[in-house]
Write a structure and sequence with these properties.
The chain is mostly helical and about 130 residues long. It has five helices and three strands; from the N terminus they run ααβααββα. The chain has a domain at about 35-125: Orthogonal Bundle (Arc Repressor Mutant, subunit A). A hairpin with a 4-residue loop joins strand 2 (about 95-100) and strand 3.
Length: about 130
């Protein structure tokens, strides 16, 4: 079948290897559509992933908390919630690379598997129930 991985699951790679745009399903077959929707289910995670999507893969990492708190457009004391809930969740899924010692956040090894949803949201911002990101 065209467009399918060797196991027939659609877990194929992509020609953009090395530029942060690879389809990471081959590297981590556990990344599913449900995983992507879960990552996008909270506004902080959704906004952070959208900001990383808009940035060049070669861009300097975001700094935590300054850049990350600004990226999610948070109100109130979001740094604690980001630190203890959202960054670990995105990091475990591989969507972000979070270096808690350096305080930096960048695209993770599985970022490519959430990219199609981010592109769809970017292309149709007015169709989203919560409006543009």
């Amino acid at each position: 079948m065209a467009g399918r991985g060797e196991d027939g699951t659609g877990a194929g790679g992509d020609e953009h290897a090395g530029d942060g745009r690879t389809s990471d399903r081959r590297a981590d077959p556990r990344r599913t559509l449900d995983d992507a929707f879960e990552a996008l289910s909270h506004p902080y995670r959704r906004r952070l992933l959208a900001v990383l999507h808009r940035r060049s893969p070669d861009a300097e990492p975001l700094r935590f908390p300054e850049d990350v708190v600004a990226a999610v457009n948070a109100t109130g004391p979001p740094a604690v919630e980001l630190l203890h809930v959202h960054l670990p969740k995105l990091s475990r899924a591989g969507y972000v690379a979070w270096d808690d010692e350096d305080g930096t956040v960048s695209r993770g090894p599985a970022f490519g598997s959430v990219r199609p949803l981010l592109e769809l949201m970017a292309e149709h911002p007015d169709a989203l129930p919560d409006g543009p990101l």
